[in-house]
Structure formats: structure tokens, C-alpha cells
Amino acid sequence: VFVFFFSSRRRHTRCREVSWARRCVQETGTWDIEQEMADNPYVKRILIAEDIANQNVEMAQKAKMERLAMERLEAQKEIDKIRDAEEKLYQEAISKEWGTGEELKEMEKKTAVEVKEIKQQYAENKGKVIKLLVDNIMEVDLELPEVVKGNFEK
After folding, report:
1. What is the sign of the dihedral through the CA atoms of 17, 22, 23 and 27?
2. How far apart are CA 54 and CA 61, in angstroms?
3. Would you say 37 and 43 are in contact if contact means Cβ atoms under 8 Å apart?
4. CB 154 within 8 Å of CB 146
5. Burial class (CB in 10 A: 0-12, 13-18, 19+), 144
């Protein structure tokens, strides 16, 4: 068994109150709030105070932005200082492991001289090595060694 019942009285009451409010507004006419506010000295004082507060907020925001910019510059200076110190430590570690820049340049010069000497020796001996290889390939001893012949007495 289903029982349904509707509360139309509540809906009717609510509608009646809304229509009453509308009727009251319509009967009184339009209300010029701007004119009434402009004439009210208290409203004027509130508006002036609001303008002053807005100016104070703008000045505070501007000061905050300037402080942030200064802090950002100081932080960047500090970062640069730390980076320079770390770079110096890194260069010192490299110089301990690999030597100073002058030592590296000297080592590179010595290496270049040695490479030049090796290339020169290669150019000088290239023909001799080729001749030696060709001669040894062309000279074949046709005699069998004693071991292969089976003569083990020697």
C-alpha cells in the first residue's frame, strides 16, 4: 500500500510571500540608492577611507615587489659567490689530478714531438719492412726438416 500526500499549503505560502514582496516594491517605486549614498556624509567618509585603504594596499604591494626584487638580487649574488667558490675547488682538484695548465701544455708538446718522431720513423722504415716481408715470403726453403724426414738421430 502506497500513501501519497502533497503539501500544497507550504508552496502556496511561499508564493504568497514572494508576490507580497514584489507588490511592495512595485507600489513604492524605484529607489535611487546612488543619489541617497552621495548625499549621506557617513557614506562619503567610508568611501574616502576605502580610497585611502586602497592606496595603502597599493603602496604595500609596490614595497613588497621592490623588496622581492632586492632579495632576488642578493640571492643571485650569493649563488654566484658559492658557484665561484665551488668552481675554484673543482679547478684545484683537476689541477691536482692532472697537473696545472702549464704542465698539461708541456705534456701536449712532448706528445706532439713523440708522435712526429714515430711518423718519421714509420716513413723511413716502411720500405725496409715491406722489402723484408717480400723477401721472406719469396724465399722458400724446399728442403724438409730432419724431424719430418724421420731422422731423429741428430
Report:
1. positive
2. 10
3. yes
4. yes
5. exposed
Give CA–CA dist 69/77, Å, rounded. Answer: 12
Q: Which cell is 70 given?
A: 632586492
Residues 6+ apart with CB under 8 A from 38: 44
Q: How far apart are CA 129 and CA 135, in angstroms?
A: 10
How far is it, in rounded angstroms, from Cα 28 to Cα 35?
17
What does each C-alpha distance from 130 to 82, 137, 141, 144 come to in angstroms?
62, 11, 20, 27
DSSP string, 45-107: HHHHHHHHHHHHHHHHHHHHHHHHHHHHHHHHHHHHHHHHHHHHHHHHHHHHHH--HHHHHHH
Cell numbers for 16: 504568497
Query: Angle, to 10 degrees, between the axis of helix 101-138 and the axis of helix 41-98?
Result: 50
Rounded mean pLDDT for each run of 10 residues along the chain, 154 residues in total: 50 51 56 66 85 93 96 96 95 78 83 95 92 84 72 56
**pLDDT score for 117:** 96
